[in-house]
Amino acid sequence: MHPRDQTIFALSSGRPPSAIALVRVSGSQAGKIVTALAGKLPSPRMATRALLGNVGQRPIDDAVVLWFPGPASATGEDVAEFHVHGGRAVLAALFAALSEFEDVRPAEPGEFTRRAFENGKLDLTEAEGLDDLIHADTDRQRRQALRQLKGLLGDRARDWRARIIEASALIEAGIDFSDEGDVPAELIAPALAKVKALLVEIEEVLAGQGRSERLRDGLVVAIAGPPNVGKSTLMNQLARREVAIVSPHAGTTRDVIEVQLDLDGYPVTVIDTAGIRETDDPVEQEGVRRARARAADADLVLWLADSLQAAFDHDGPAPIWRVRNKIDLEAARPLAEAGAPGLRSFEISASRGDGVPELIAALVDFAQRYFGGTEGGLISRTRQRKLLEETATSLRRSVAVVRQGEELAAEELRLAARSLGRLLGRVDVEDILDVIFREFCVGK
Ligand SMILES: Nc1nc2c(c(=O)[nH]1)N(C=O)[C@@H](CNc1ccc(C(=O)N[C@@H](CCC(=O)O)C(=O)O)cc1)CN2
Ligand SMILES: Nc1nc2c(ncn2[C@@H]2O[C@H](COP(=O)(O)OP(=O)(O)OP(=O)(O)O)[C@@H](O)[C@H]2O)c(=O)[nH]1
Ligand SMILES: [Mg+2]
């Protein structure tokens, strides 16, 4: 039997041991399996308590069983769920019992979702949303993933695709109609109007989003600066725990240290780096090299200094904020001129916490602007943005070339429809599907 037609099972809940574990089964053998292990087929979609086990053998567990006959199931196939006690031995016994059935095997990562996709239960953008929802750590990530799972991008793309096909049908009708002469304008003009209208909509989605696809990875903020200025102390303040070693010795931090923060629902990775200076110590030299490299790739650099003499020693495309630390030591000094003009400046005491809430508020504000504060982000992956850009490019070309020949315009419309078909996972997808579903969890 082809692996595609085999019945699959997997643990869909977290690592054992857990209070309750959910084992899902999908495929043609699911009904036979439930009947054998639970004694009878429960009413569809009704949670039913059963002592699981094969007749004549010792029971496996006292469980709750659900039965979802296809096609009205999550995968579109017959689905059974066993809600068992989440101990390792319970699961081992259940998996052993499941493996005894013919044409039944453990599922590959993402295989349940892949079957749902193959059976038309969701399109590729929705499947991507599902994966993002499972991996969402912050509330903004959750909201964006849920919008995608609900098909907000998929529905727009389907609508655009249908309208492109309508426009190209008009043009192709015109081409057929006019074997000799020119294509009648009354067919071309409405086709062009349709194309221009939907181009505006796609461009709006592409422009109005900020960088919503970056919401999946999060923003990277690097703390950089000379040794001993309090970078690791600030890191610990932001993390609210002792993630980095702090000491009065210059050159304490050598490796790059990372923490994931949830700043008002935005995912932010803060990295603490080695103090940047000339040094003869080869280990510290390597630390400085890594510090420079990570700061150069960051989305924002917090350049920490404890005196105004400390010059910047950083270049890269990312904005730099100047943060003057240890203001508690300078109480008697007049507030000095802060940093270069145009740079945002903060004054803090990382060890006492003064000024840290203001710095955090500014980071939240930065994240909001960076991701495009609006709640409308439809794009959540580079794959999606690239395909929408390709669609827009083909549409623009079709308008530009129509005077040179209607066939050229029709060809561009076909390319545009194909890009949207790829976005939805309807054309040329085998390779993409493998890549996307491989990243999924087992049991999803
Ligand atoms: N126990 C359990 N909880 C779960 C899931 C599950 O599969 N099992 N889900 C798994 O992802 C999520 C809920 N999503 C689901 C999506 C579709 C269907 C489903 O049966 N769809 C059918 C029937 C639709 C209907 O009548 O509402 C269909 O689409 O035809 C079930 C759950 C989260 N919680
Ligand atoms: N008075 C005062 N001391 C501070 C403050 N922040 C940090 N320190 C002290 O400054 C020293 C260096 O702090 P670290 O956080 O290790 O400095 P760093 O920039 O990470 O240093 P390197 O890792 O060596 O580059 C420690 O003794 C801290 O306790 C502050 O706001 N006020
Ligand atoms: Mg340090």
From TrEMBL:
GO MF terms, alphabetically ordered: hydrolase activity
Domain TrmE-type G: 218-368
Needed co-factor(s): K(+)
Name of the protein in its database record: tRNA modification GTPase MnmE
Binding site for Mg(2+): 232, 253
Keyword Plastid set for record: no
Top-level EC class as recorded in UniProt: hydrolase
Family per record: Belongs to the TRAFAC class TrmE-Era-EngA-EngB-Septin-like GTPase superfamily. TrmE GTPase family.
Assigned EC number: 3.6.-.-
Subunit relationships: Homodimer. Heterotetramer of two MnmE and two MnmG subunits.
InterPro entries: AAA+_ATPase, G_TrmE, GTP-bd, GTP-bd_TrmE_N, GTPase_MnmE, MnmE_dom2, MnmE_helical, P-loop_NTPase
PROSITE patterns: G_TRME
Pfam families (UniProt xref): MMR_HSR1, MnmE_helical, TrmE_N
Sorted UniProt keywords: Cytoplasm, GTP-binding, Hydrolase, Magnesium, Metal-binding, Nucleotide-binding, Potassium, tRNA processing
Organism of derivation: Bradyrhizobium algeriense
Subcellular location(s) of the protein: Cytoplasm
Binding site for (6S)-5-formyl-5,6,7,8-tetrahydrofolate: 24, 81, 121, 444
Protein function: Exhibits a very high intrinsic GTPase hydrolysis rate. Involved in the addition of a carboxymethylaminomethyl (cmnm) group at the wobble position (U34) of certain tRNAs, forming tRNA-cmnm(5)s(2)U34.
Keyword Hydrolase: yes
Originating gene: mnmE
SMART domains: AAA (SM00382)
Binding site for GTP: 228-233, 247-253, 272-275
Cofactor note: Binds 1 potassium ion per subunit.
